[in-house]
Design a protein that fits this description.
- The chain has one domain: Heat-Labile Enterotoxin, Chain A, CATH 3.90.210.
- Helices cover 18% and strands 25% of the residues.
- The protein has five helices and nine strands.
- A hairpin with a 4-residue loop joins strand 8 and strand 9.
- The radius of gyration is 18 Å and the shape is globular.
- It starts with 8 loop residues before the first helix and ends in a 17-residue tail after the last strand.
């Protein structure tokens, strides 16, 4: 998360909900106001591949690392890894993966997690801004990725604040190698995903 000048990290984490800003991609954070006319040229299969598999590579168009210009937002949704030799499956939970990245693999003592929902495209639809890409789904994204077990879903441009249910602060204890939840900040403006349900009651 990018901290704003003059705010402690806790206040900054809550501000993202209170201000109704929501989660925004790095490109928007760097280019505020967002150049809306450039969105279509950013949402491409090539850029999604750079985001997922070559995050730190240099963008030849800008000379910057791709993560500085990415229009995507990485969300952790968990996944299952299959070990064919041991004939078993290993579950990688969303929260565990998010905390691993949030603490920069145990290097920083505090992580802020946002619990949210997005609409997933039923198939690859990178150019459609309003849906997220389930890049962990091997039926849709069949190209090999060394990061498949991270269980990533890629949102585009922004995740609206009313789709974020809460912010959680977690603290990593290096000495004991344990992590604990310090507080939860709930979003009073949260809209449940059931609002999109087309299931109707029957008489």
């Amino acid at each position: 998360m990018c901290q704003r000048d003059g705010l402690p990290a806790d206040d900054d984490a809550r501000w993202l909900i209170d201000s109704r800003t929501g989660l925004t991609c790095r490109w928007w954070q760097k280019r505020n106001p967002l150049p809306a006319q450039e969105i279509a040229s950013k949402l491409t299969v090539q850029n999604l591949n750079l985001h997922v598999n070559h995050f730190e590579s240099t963008d030849p168009a800008t000379g910057l690392p791709f993560y500085e210009e990415t229009p995507f937002i990485s969300l952790s949704c968990g996944t299952v890894e299959r070990d064919t030799v041991a004939m078993t499956n290993f579950v990688h939970t969303a929260r565990h993966t998010a905390l691993w990245f949030g603490t920069q693999f145990g290097k920083v003592p505090v992580a802020y997690l946002y619990v949210c929902w997005v609409v997933l495209a039923p198939r690859s639809a990178v150019a459609v801004e309003g849906v997220a890409e389930e890049v962990r789904d091997l039926n849709t994204y069949r190209r090999y990725s060394p990061y498949q077990t991270e269980g990533e879903v890629a949102a585009k441009i922004a995740v609206p604040a009313n789709q974020i249910s809460q912010c959680e602060k977690w603290e990593w204890e290096r000495g004991t190698k344990t992590i604990r939840q310090s507080w939860i900040y709930r979003n009073p403006g949260f809209v449940e995903p059931e609002a999109l349900s087309n299931v109707r009651e029957m008489l």
